[in-house]
Design brief:
Length: 259
């Protein structure tokens, strides 16, 4: 009997050991993959983004290892505060924690219409809605019946989606309390851009801006991606390191993945 109990204890301990081993491997991978900020450059998932000098408040309080605010950069904050599309749109870089959990998978998980496996969760299931005040041209609208909405683009070259919450009762029809957007960065496997805006107006007012917001977020970040820039040593010469001097509106930047 004692031998039987001893064997059973060994069997029971195996899953725990496997879990511990997997978690240890995860922590080891995290040390290699975590974001690093060095000499004005943010290193994320093997890409390099020019941030320049940072404001003191995020340097003192923010942990950059997984995500960081784009407006933590002094020159980018000034630029974005005057950008007609992103003036009121906060957004961050986010590295998906597990290397196998790609940006595309992260987006899919956030836009999930039903949990898998199925959960006992009334607010986790979304159905298509045809309510006219919740429609956005170019997007399918889904509602969970508890004020939460998901907007999925019908046809877009940019992988993205919006998730919003309606304001509480007695508000204007279609009034939004908060909206978040996820944009997959196409030049790395594990980078997404997360945007958020509080009280953006109604669906009819804010919805038509969805596509432009996603496009502009991606456009700006592509313009500060200096991974393939051979003149990186010159980037410390000015706050924006010549980026704005060469492209004052941060438009039309491209990345050559063959170099």
């Amino acid at each position: 009997m004692r031998f039987f109990l001893f064997v059973m204890s060994l069997i029971a301990s195996e899953p725990a050991r496997a879990d511990e081993s997997g978690y240890a491997a995860f922590l080891q991978e995290e040390q290699v993959l975590e974001n690093k900020f060095e000499d004005g450059v943010m290193h994320v998932n093997r890409r390099m983004f020019w941030m320049g000098d940072l404001h003191e408040w995020p340097k003192a309080t923010h942990d950059y290892r997984v995500s960081f605010m784009v407006r933590s950069s002094i020159w980018l904050r000034e630029f974005l505060d005057n950008d007609p599309v992103l003036k009121y749109q906060d957004f961050v870089f986010r590295r998906t924690r597990d290397s196998s959990f790609t940006g595309a998978r992260y987006l899919a998980s956030q836009m999930e219409l039903a949990p898998d496996p199925t959960l006992d969760c009334k607010t986790c299931f979304y159905d298509a809605t045809l309510d006219p005040i919740l429609q956005v041209e170019g997007y399918d609208t889904y509602s969970n019946g508890f004020r939460s909405l998901i907007f999925v683009p019908k046809d877009s070259e940019i992988a993205h989606g919006f998730k919003c919450s309606l304001a509480r009762e007695n508000s204007q029809a279609g009034q939004l309390d908060i909206c978040s957007v996820i944009v997959v960065y196409p030049y790395a496997t594990n980078i997404v851009l997360n945007g958020r805006r509080h009280h953006p107006g109604t669906v009819l007012e804010y919805g038509p801006k969805f596509a432009a917001i996603a496009k502009r977020m991606l456009e700006v970040i592509i313009c500060i991606d200096i991974t393939n820039d051979q003149s990186i040593e010159d980037y410390a010469d000015s706050p924006s390191s010549g980026i704005l001097e060469n492209n004052p509106n941060l438009l039309g930047c491209g990345i050559d993945l063959t170099s």
